[in-house]
Amino acid sequence: FFTSCQTICPIMAINMAELQSYFKEDNVVKFLSHSVTPVIDSVSVLRKYANKNGAIDDKWEITTGEKKHIYELARKSYFAVLDDGDGGDQDFIHTEQFILVDKKRQIRGFYDGTDAKELKRIISDIEILKNED
């Protein structure tokens, strides 16, 4: 996501807030959003975004970092995008995916973060994962 996005990101933020609300009392389930535009999305900009979207600090972390590292995570750890890139100035990742990662840092599911119907599926999958432990 990026804070100045006017297309999919606002919808995803609403849906993430819904998930956060559903699991608000659950101390195990956490949410993480990575900004893909660290040059624009400073800590203070992200704080405003978090406040605007009702992010609870201990529940939904909204982070950024070095662009090359974020893009490498997206491509090689989360498999969020299939295209290659180097995380340079011309590289850009913008995906609608919510990715479910378990306690062992294994990917357990991909969901369309812009589709409210997908929230039911991710909630169900999270509940299944919680019962595996």
TrEMBL record:
InterPro entries in UniProt: SCO1/SenC, Thioredoxin-like_sf
Q: Which Pfam families match?
A: SCO1-SenC (PF02630)
Spell out the family assignment given in the record's similarity comment.
Belongs to the SCO1/2 family.
Name-wise, this protein is Cytochrome oxidase biogenesis protein Sco1/SenC/PrrC, thiol-disulfide reductase involved in Cu(I) insertion into CoxII Cu(A) center
Question: Top-down, what is the taxonomic lineage of the species of origin?
Answer: unclassified sequences, metagenomes, ecological metagenomes
